[in-house]
């Protein structure tokens, strides 16, 4: 069984990744997004995709070495690997990371050699809480068949290696299955409080310690997201889709067949938008099935406003303390 999450960051990349029985997250963009990203990468058994541009890598690394510096691609990979290693270690979890380079169609053989050398160098430094696979993947991100299939296969291999001989109590699997069905129902709740969550049918007949274990497991495996406010997101793909849209950069000719959405903010103050306008633009996104807006106008408005509050809760959007506008963090 696969579930799809989309995380779109500020370097313009928008890549679909797959969840098997592990959490899978795309890591790209500026490290300033780390406070928001931590809510998506602290799960158990996570596979992290570190994305860099591969075309021209030989030239930029050679130039950086001549200047006694590190190139941008190496800095981005190191910063994200260090960050996710710290988050995973702090949560007493484990994970694997894959280095993926894009723009293979524009690359030369020397770029592949540089990519392999960079990956080996990074892999030697990350072999504990997060293990970087020694072999990178060089892809054309717009190739919707062979290359994306190759990414999926590599994720599955990393997942299988982590989950080898893994065993969990039967009630944990039952909770997982219940949440799978809950996520498929367009009319089911998208969020709740922790106390209300404990009373939901999936925990029927369980003891307090089993309920606590079940909630911890669901959180670690990405079936739910616990927010600082105490709310629990019951449909992480709904929340991730909204975060993706909010952080999405302007449309680019390199988007290819990938569907992207760009929010229109205040022309005189780029990055600022009124709350009602933000809610309205989010609700206008109807071709992303993950958002699943209610057919009832009042309910849909309530969902949109609550969604913005949740995004504020993790710093994806910031409230202007002096105005009734909402600032997009990217």
Describe this structure in words.
The structure is a single chain. Strands 3, 4, 5, 6 and 7 form a 5-stranded parallel beta sheet that branches. Strands 8-10-9 form a 3-stranded antiparallel beta sheet. It has helices at 34-41, 57-66, 72-90, 109-123, 146-163, 170-184, 194-198, 208-220, 236-247, 275-283, 297-313, and strands at residues 3-8, 14-19, 23-27, 46-53, 95-102, 130-132, 137-138, 191-193, 225-226, 231-233, 272-274, 317-319, 325-328. It is globular, with a radius of gyration of 20 Å. It has 330 residues and is α/β, with parallel strands linked by helices. Residues 1-22 and 25-32 have low confidence and may be disordered. The chain starts with a strand and ends with a strand.
- How confident is the prediction overall: mean pLDDT? 78
SS elements, strand count: 13
Strand fraction equals 15-25%
Order of helices and strands: EEEHEHHEHEEHHEHHEEHEHHEE
Q: In one word, what is the shape?
A: globular
Structural class: alpha/beta
Q: What oligomeric state best describes the polypeptide chains here?
A: single chain
Percent helix among the residues? 40-55%
Report the radius of gyration as a whole number of Å. 20 Å
Question: How far apart, in Å, are the first and last alpha carbons?
Answer: 33 Å
Low-confidence stretches: 1-22, 25-32
The number of helices is: 11
Instruction: Summarize the main sheet.
Output: 5 strands, parallel
Topology:
Elements: E1 3-8, E2 14-19, E3 23-27, H1 34-41, E4 46-53, H2 57-66, H3 72-90, E5 95-102, H4 109-123, E6 130-132, E7 137-138, H5 146-163, H6 170-184, E8 191-193, H7 194-198, H8 208-220, E9 225-226, E10 231-233, H9 236-247, E11 272-274, H10 275-283, H11 297-313, E12 317-319, E13 325-328
Parallel strand pairs: 3-4, 4-5, 5-6, 5-7
Antiparallel strand pairs: 1-2, 8-10, 9-10, 11-13, 12-13
Helix pairs in contact: 2-4, 6-8, 10-11
